[in-house]
Amino acid sequence: MTDAVDLTCEFLGLRLPNPIILASGVIGTSAALMVRAAREGAGAVTAKSCGPGPRAGHPNPVAVDWGHGVINAIGLSNPGAVAEVALLADAQARLRSLGVPLIASVFGGTVEEFATVARIVSGADPDLIEVNVSCPNVADEFGTPFAASCADAAAVTEAVKVAAVGIPISLKLAPNVPSIGRIAAAVVEAGADAITAINTMPGMVINADAGRPVLSNRVGGLSGPALKPIALRCVAEVASAVEVPIIGTGGVMTGRDAAEMLMAGATAVGVGTAVWYRGVSVLGEIADELCAFLRGSDCAGLGDIRGRIFE
Question: Using an 8 Å Cβ cutoff, are 298 and 285 in contact?
């Protein structure tokens, strides 16, 4: 049996100490919290998505555990790109000393806004910019998500690629499309360096006693255990369609879940809702559990299981 297991992960020229990445929108709201995530064992950390201007988000309640996961409609609350760049610069200075890459996350209501926000946050020199074209809980404000159309997603990709000034970009795609593989292929052709799959799945939870949805926004994004089968299918479809690195995200609660995501073709694994259930220490715990799984399977490293379902 293999005693030494190598969890290091190469991603677009970055060397992550392990493949577990703090997903956007969980605790990436301050430099201190992102540094804490790194110290707790994250291989990379993603900041909460920021847009062209400050947003307060939706009124409470905005998130609830419905029994099989979490549904949320935070509403993309953020301080705006100008304030965000100072936060990111502070985080980057501290994370580099820990050897943990920083991923910025951006959104916009138009192609031009995506480009503007990417240009601003590039000033903080993040290691990667994640382009959130798929947020499901502000559709009434922004219209159909850009991730729903090959042409629209590609247009955003092209604009951000120019604006990002040499920083690699990953397009965060939506699960609720006819073919996520076709969307992935379109954005890669347009210049995406990586894919993040997937965002949350739009849904609704109703309080039968009150006779109304539990969220103030009525609909929100489903995450957690119920999302994992959908995420695995999407990651596998993307892996079949493109050859760029993939951050597989959705329903990863344990090291075994992370192994399944890697087997589906992910290069690295995003973890978000698990922090809600298990605390920030879950980031390192999942890495340890993944290490134990690999050791028990007589594997020396991530490459021994990555893409296994295609063998």
Answer: no
